[in-house]
Structure formats: C-alpha cells, structure tokens
Amino acid sequence: MTPHTPEEAEQALRDAIDSGDPARIAAAEADVERLDNPKPLVPLMSSALWYASHDIPVFRLLAGRKHPFPGSHGLKDATTDLDQIRAWWSRTPEANIGLATGHKFDVVDIDGPLGQKSRAEHWDSVFATIDASQIAKVLTPRPGGMHIYVPATGDGNGAGIAPGVDYRGQGGYVVAPPSVITAGSKDHPGRYRFLGTPAFTTLGGAA
What pTM, to 2 d.p., does this model score? Predict the structure, then answer.
C-alpha cells in the first residue's frame, strides 16, 4: 500500500526499519522524501538555537559536509551560548550543525544496510534495550542509515561494536537535522531528519 500522508510514510518507514530489509527501507525512505519535500525547512540557525535552548552544545560544520571548519577546534568549540551561535550562523547561514556527543547523549550509528542487518540479528540481545532507552532517532542520508540517540554513559567512541554499527560517546560528534549533505560531497547526498519527535526536553546527563 502506497502511503499518502507524511504520517503514513513515517509509520511505514518505522516498520521497514524494524524489518531490517534494505530494499524495503530504501522504498520507505523514498516515500518519506516524496511526501516531506513540500514542507518548509527550518533554517539552520533556528535549529542550532533550538538545540542550545535544550542545553545541547552545537558547533558549525562546513556547508553540505560533515567536517568542521578549517582552523576551528571542531567539537571542542561546541557551545550553548546563543550569542555565539547567532554570530556563527549569521556569517555562514548554510553551515551544517554538529552536536558533541557524550554530554547529554551518546549515539548509536547504524551505517546503512549492514548496520540494519546487525540491528535485526542482535535485536533481542542488544537493540531492543537500545530502542527502549532511545531519546531520538535520526535518518541519515545513507540508505538505511540511522542515528539512535541514547542517554550519555560517560563512555568514549567505539568503532565496529557490531558489523556496520559504531558508537559515539565522549570525544565524538554527529551531524544533526536539518543539516544537508550536498551532491558534490563524497558522502551520500540528502538531509538528516528526525524519525518521530525527539525527547530532548527530558534529557539530564552530564553538563
């Protein structure tokens, strides 16, 4: 059944992700993109200020990319200072948004179909618990890619905790919605988007 509303498309995508079927996920993502396109995008500055208002440190990434600005301190520049954030995005309004992990949340990075396969295979032993504790889910531009935000643990980063699955904790960062990867990048082009409503207002975690 073809979804006709954004809500139907999002539910179909949730079901597809839970199935772990890459082809089904890709088709559902295409439906979400098709039905979501008419919505106006929230300006990146407004989004960065929104994160900071929830005490989530942000910093600038290059427009259309995942990388910090040359000459910056990257995630070490992450701040909740609203005046600093306004100054950054006033100068570079197309800059993507980076969120430093390990402060208010960590992130489980599902890297495409291989990561979704691991998620399905290890659901009972690992990912059911991760899903139950999740604060937010973000769809990344990579087909089947997803960031699962979980409460901060104090742990550092971990690569390859399962095939196609990485962990971002202290000393790490993620690209945040509504950042966009452009077609000229070596990464998959597209927009980062929340799947459902994030629960950032309930966050505690380390300062």
Answer: 0.81
